[in-house]
Amino acid sequence: MPFEKTECIEAAWTRADRSVVVKMQAIWVLCLAITTVGFCNAATPPAPAGHIIGVGGVFFKAKDPKALAAWYRDVLGLPLEAWGGAALRYDKAKLPPATAWNAFPATTKYFAPSTSDFMIDYVIDDMDAMLGRLRSHGVAILKQQSDDANGRFAWILDPEGNKVELWEPKQ
User: How is the chain split among helix, strand and coil, in percent rounded to 5?
Assistant: First the structure.
């Protein structure tokens, strides 16, 4: 009988050891995860002075700048200023937290059917309203995409043949 009691005590102690070990392992994994997340989310040191911090404007040549500006105003709703261009504010609702910048290879077909060397992506507030507006002005919609993780997209050509990307960010 004493032997059985000792076996029971050892079995209980072993179960307790396993329980303690499992708890310690769980705590260790949790600490490791917290440390890793903290490390990954740690603020990056500030960059030295003299670097790009944003896009200050988009400028391009046009065959007829006034007519093209009027088209962007009338068809796409670009709010033109008295000086002939637009000042798009960053503090509006629905704007993404960053502006994308990317250099494409000279052989890219992404800008097709345009032969221009650039394409501008405009953030819009309501894709359905924009598509209706475009159709009412007789603008052909080259392609639409509603299943992108970043939101909804549509592509058109402006009167000078520049491909325009329209993007309604996912909310």
Answer: 35, 15, 50
How many domains is the chain partitioned into structurally? 2
Measured in whole angstroms, the distance separating CA 17 from the mean position of its chain's CA atoms is 49
pLDDT by residue, tens only, the chain of 171 residues: 444 544 544 444 455 455 544 444 545 444 444 444 444 555 677 777 887 778 888 999 999 999 999 999 999 999 999 999 999 988 877 788 888 889 999 999 999 999 999 999 999 999 999 999 999 999 999 999 999 999 999 999 999 999 999 999 998
> Taking phi first (over 0 means left), then psi (-120 to 50 degrees means alpha), and beta for anything else, what does residue 170 get?
beta
Number of neighbouring beta carbons within 10 Å of residue 8: 10
In total, the chain counts a number of residues equal to 171
Q: Are residues 89 and 161 in the same domain?
A: yes
Domain assignment of residue 136, yes or no: yes
Say whether pTM exceeds 0.85: no
* Structure tokens that stand for 53 in this block: 């911090």
